[in-house]
Records
---
Amino acid sequence: MKLITAIIQEDKLDEVREALIQADVTRISVSRISGHGRQEDIDIYRGRRIAPNLLPKTRIEIAVNEDFVEQTIDTIIAAARHGDGEIGDGKIFVTPLEECVRIRTGERGRSAI
Ligand SMILES: Nc1ncnc2c1ncn2[C@@H]1O[C@H](COP(=O)(O)OP(=O)(O)OP(=O)(O)O)[C@@H](O)[C@H]1O
Ligand SMILES: [Mg+2]
């Protein structure tokens, strides 16, 4: 199992959710966060590099079985990109997921996802 965490632009959330549903990825957690990525033009104030402003972003988290990883990533990319891709479109992180438990039934692992 993997945990797919994507940070996307707020305006793309509905498009991404819609596309994931069409790709049969039906479970998702969403949070509103703020962050910044790499700085193309680093701001310098009195000789020191200064932290850029935090921008509002949307984080989605999806736990999937191995056979869903690639289609989930591809779907997020296709739906979250502005045009041919713009700075700040976002990032996807994939981390190993050790366990998943459905609280209602106590099921574990793939069938609990
Ligand atoms: N390495 C990282 N660690 C943690 N959060 C990150 C990282 N990279 C990006 N983020 C988060 O993702 C958001 C979007 O990142 P962003 O798309 O700007 O990435 P980037 O590496 O700067 O690429 P680009 O050049 O396309 O802008 C950031 O605002 C931040 O919240
Ligand atoms: Mg950036």
---
Amino acid sequence: MTTMPAPLIEMLNALADPAMLLDDRGRVAATNAAAKDRFGAWVEGQSYISVLRQPGLLAPVENAFFSQQSGTARFIHVDGAVETAFEVGITPLASLLRNGRSPVMLIFRDVSEQGEGAAMRRDFVANVSHELKTPLTAMIGYVETLQGPAQKDEEAQRRFLAHLGQELSRMNRLVVDLLSLSRLEGQSRRKPRDRVDLVALLSEVVGLLAFTASDQQVELVLDTPERADVFGDADQLTQVVANLVENAIKYGRQPGTVRVDLDYVQREPVLRGPAWRMSVIDDGPGIAAEHLPRLTERFYRVDTGRSRQQGGTGLGLAIVKHIVNRHRGRLKIESKPGEGTRIGVTLPAATEPTLS
Ligand SMILES: Nc1ncnc2c1ncn2[C@@H]1O[C@H](COP(=O)(O)OP(=O)(O)OP(=O)(O)O)[C@@H](O)[C@H]1O
Ligand SMILES: [Mg+2]
């Protein structure tokens, strides 16, 4: 690998976007911090063909090498379940031309928020407005009743105030969930780096939900090894598990059993490495196959009436999916109508397991 002039390396490091320098033999001679963060440090010294691997990008890079033509290309980078679309600026460094080839600078601009993102946001605003309108309309009705027909009826007043309180707390939950989604969107490209023990986390969540479960006559069973470390954000992972266990209690069988398992996977094929798989399993009515692919959409519910009545916002699984993606993990929803549902979250393991 050719050593690049120091000023070039300094410039590379000054760039906020991921950038790499290819030497005149087509090897990745240097990457900046943003590129190491996105693509991994392993790319240095590799041939650009094995790093970039997408034909749309290879042709313009070759033009830059051999013909000193600059250009741009699209590049899709996949990390776990997160796909990022980049527009890559390809610039030959013609002043360093040697034997008919020049080094090439690649700068990756993240364009995944553009294009279809805009249409999705419009839909989202329409949905949010609708979700807010429903409780608001109900609340206006209750207030009118309190001011009119129920004015002299204490029993009716108590009832309508209780309804009012329910609608308000639902709106509050909705806003809290929306805020957490928007925060997550801002973080999606930053991997969490704290070491988190999933065993402690699962025990805590199961402990917190023990009362809700027994209230619904649901038995909560936790089965874990002694320790299971991942790199993660403990609050967000708690949110994931709480949501899945709450769903299993709410939509499962009552009385019934909810199991929370944690298993080690030697080599997770998609994550290409060792992983921990948390599974939340219920023995409830399950979910019909046609709904499965849509469950993680915002506001999607199988039975809108039932979910609303139970105070659900329909954002729970959307939040779960965002958090799992941010952790470069996988979310798998399996269900057999009449038998139950199993939701698995697989996260890259931070260490070898301690087997109990
Ligand atoms: N274990 C399950 N068994 C059957 N149906 C489920 C299960 N988990 C989720 N669902 C269905 O998926 C829908 C979406 O779940 P999600 O957690 O996103 O929303 P929610 O529970 O309605 O609201 P929130 O989580 O915000 O309180 C639910 O409304 C329910 O219809
Ligand atoms: Mg939920």
